[in-house]
Amino acid sequence: MNHERSSVLFQQAKAVIPGGVNSPVRAFKSVGADPLFIKKAAGSHIYDEDGNDFVDYVGSWGPMIVGHCHPDILKAVQDTMASGASFGAPTERETILANMVIDAVPSIEMVRMVSSGTEATMSAIRLARGYTGRDKIMKFSGCYHGHSDSLLVKAGSGMATFGVPDSPGVPADFAKHTLTAEFNSLASVKELVAGNRGAIACIIVEPIAGNMGTVPPREGFLEGLREICTNEGIILIFDEVMCGFRVAYGGMQELTGVTPDMTTLGKIIGGGLPVGAFGGTREIMEKLSPAGGIYQAGTLSGNPLAMSAGIATLNILKQPGFYEALEEKSRAVAEGIAKAAKDAGYPIYSTRIGSMFCAFFSKGEVFDWPTASQCDTRAFARYFLGMLDEGVYLAPSQFETAFVSAAHSEADIEKTIAAAAKCFKMIA
Ligand SMILES: *Cc1c(COP(=O)(O)O)cnc(C)c1O
To answer: In terms of CB atoms within 10 Å, which of 78, 166, 227, 281 comes out highest?
Structure first.
């Protein structure tokens, strides 16, 4: 496969953009290759600058659940654009999308729009701190909530130690307010809560972890978090930026029946345009400025183009049978890949909820970051490059989720499984 033009464009980009990309994981570094520059997309396929055609399982890292260039979304954005891209004043579309989100997501009684998932989680945490009057927050190792300072933190040497920054530029004084527990371990949460009674404002969790591969919550984990938070006066935040409107119309909270106090959203609700949102109970949300005193703002928040794309997307998702059809496709492709691996004598650990799935290059179960980090990332890199060569575009890292869209066809899925069979034979 020819990547000549992508290589030239990457060299040009590297001269003016740090690392040649505007978000690190795009750089293909963890698979030891150079990124492909994308020219266009349609439905379930993307096309690079050299004219190569790929079945796309990245879907812009989650938003493209109905496929690329859906005619309803195109029309909505074009119509809106013709009457003005941004006013910095309220528009009716913001209330329409707010009502759609409130109707869909059990925990949300009021919602505020922002421009990215990072902004949503950052603002939700500020609100939780302001509401409770507490400074500390808890997150889970391997969960990603965007790149704001408080959240770019991993655990120190021991579970009960204070957080240390994950990146230069994050002050240690800041990171020490972030406690890190182990995903799927209520024991690790209880230990931290016991050591920090009355000091923890919120626990933020991806209810299905999608940023260390795809790691579903174990039976009772989310229920346990709910109980601990209720007993301790801690705000429970579900970060559904990835899984909201993805695993079900109402997200993981609809699927599991566990209702957090606050929820963050993004990705799908913008239909491919920059967006984020955070919402929760009326009592908490009314503390937000200008209704209350906790400050949060944004020049492009509730942007007309993003609102139109979001409304058009949700209208497609609301159609009867949408999630059932997506479930069928997703099951077929994830099970097909797992079977191909097994048949090749190279079994993987396969996980899936709805249209999110992951092939972990692990012989054992993956249920948290320590088990995920045991995966054979070098074998994954060979698999990734093999799949790319066969015309299947996966995320360039073992620790990412694959996304299926409604636009994926039976032929796409057959092609993907055949490619996987070939690649696993090569690796085995
Ligand atoms: C993508 C993601 C974010 C960050 O969203 P951005 O729009 O990239 O800032 C936050 N939380 C989760 C769970 C995500 O998957």
So the answer is: 281
Give residue 129 CA to ligand 1 midpoint distance, Å: 20
Planar angle of CA 297, 302, 307, nearest 5 degrees: 165
Domain 4-69+321-427, CATH class in plain words: alpha beta
Contact, 330 vs 177, CB < 8 A?
A: no
Residue 161 has pLDDT above 50, yes or no: no
311-323 pLDDT, tens digit per residue, is 999 999 999 999 9
Give the whole-angstrom CA distance, residue 246 versus residue 326. Answer: 10
CA distance 340 to 415: 12
Please give the CATH architecture assigned to the domain spanning 71-317.
Answer: 3-Layer(aba) Sandwich (3.40)
User: Tokens 């055949």, residue?
Assistant: 418
Tell me if residue 349 is catalytic: no
In whole angstroms, give the CA distance from residue 229 to residue 137.
12
Q: How far apart are the CA of 348 and the centre of ligand 1, in A?
A: 27
* Among candidate residues 255, 158, 257, 151, the one with its CA nearest the CA of residue 205: 151
Is-contact 364 349, C-beta < 8 A?
Answer: yes
For the stretch 130-139, pLDDT in tens is 999 999 999 9
- Both structure tokens of 129: 């701190």
Q: How far apart, in whole angstroms, are the C-alpha atoms of residue 224 and residue 187?
A: 10
**Residue 254, ligand 1, Cβ within 6 A:** no
Evaluate if residue 300 carries a pLDDT over 70: yes
Query: By three-state DSSP, how is residue 203 classified?
Result: strand
Ordered by start, the domain boundaries in the chain are 4-69+321-427, 71-317
pTM for this model (two decimals) = 0.97
